[in-house]
Write a structure and sequence with these properties.
CATH architecture of the largest domain: Beta Barrel
Number of helices: 3
Oligomer: single chain
Structural class: alpha+beta
Number of strands: 13
């Protein structure tokens, strides 16, 4: 009996148990430390993520292509408000490019080349932060603002030798090409309107002070009157669209 008790006291020696616990604890700490380090380097400059941002963008949407610039201002750790400028072309769904006899491709039956300039105010809310340098931050964005439609008359080359340009006329069959871009600048019309939209932004730059992001969203532009893009096809004053853009720029420290 004494031998059994002696053996039990050796096996359940408190100091021995503590030593074993310490060894196992140190081992587990080292293991998880290496595991966390392997997920990516933790950001050490948190000021960058809480600062302002200046970015530019290149976009493709269901109505055309565009460019833009955005200045985002820190509101709190996860929220920014921003001012943005967008410029894009607006294509009609009935536009079909055909090979011209001279110059660039032309669109038969087109009345105006149409563009838009938007001046936006918006809110950016970061739902998932980028804690590691190799991870992705996810941000939800809403915006609204004023938009200005620009109608530039679309001219055709009807006489190549004498450089005669005319607007579309269904009774005139000789259309040899599209007139130079600057023909018709003196006849530009402006149409005001409003716009709003929402998007999701995925920021994936692995450099602290750089911004690189893909953004997916939807937007609608509403004008005071129809934009006269095509001569015979139905024109509209409401232009909904889906877009994807690549945004890049710089994070500004406070």
């Amino acid at each position: 009996m004494k031998q059994v008790l002696s053996k039990l006291s050796q096996e359940y020696n408190p100091s021995r148990i503590i030593r074993h616990a310490l060894v196992h604890g140190i081992f587990l700490l080292c293991f998880f430390s290496n595991h966390v380090h392997g997920q990516g380097d933790i950001q050490d400059d948190v000021r960058v993520f809480y600062g302002n941002e200046f970015t530019v963008s290149i976009a493709a949407n269901t109505n055309g292509f565009g460019i833009g610039s955005r200045y985002a201002i820190r509101k709190d750790a996860r929220t920014k408000y921003f001012y943005e400028f967008q410029a894009s072309n607006i294509r009609h769904s009935k536009e079909i490019g055909i090979i011209a006899d001279v110059g660039a491709r032309l669109v038969y039956g087109k009345n105006n080349s149409t563009y838009s300039m938007a001046f936006l105010y918006g809110n950016q809310s970061e739902k998932f932060s980028k804690l590691d340098k190799g991870s992705v931050a996810i941000r939800y964005i809403t915006f609204f603002g004023a938009v200005l439609g620009i109608e530039k008359p679309y001219y055709y080359v009807v006489d190549v030798n004498n450089r005669v340009y005319e607007r579309f006329d269904a009774s005139t069959t000789s259309k040899y090409g599209r007139a130079p871009f600057f023909v018709g600048f003196g006849e530009i019309s402006l149409v005001p309107g409003l716009t709003t939209g929402t998007s999701v932004n995925f920021e994936f730059s692995n450099k602290n002070k750089m911004i690189q992001a893909l953004e997916f969203g939807a937007q609608v532009q509403v004008y005071l009157r129809k934009l006269e893009i095509m001569y015979e096809a139905q024109n509209n004053f409401i232009f909904p669209s889906f877009f994807v853009l690549y945004r890049f720029g710089k994070a500004l420290t406070l």
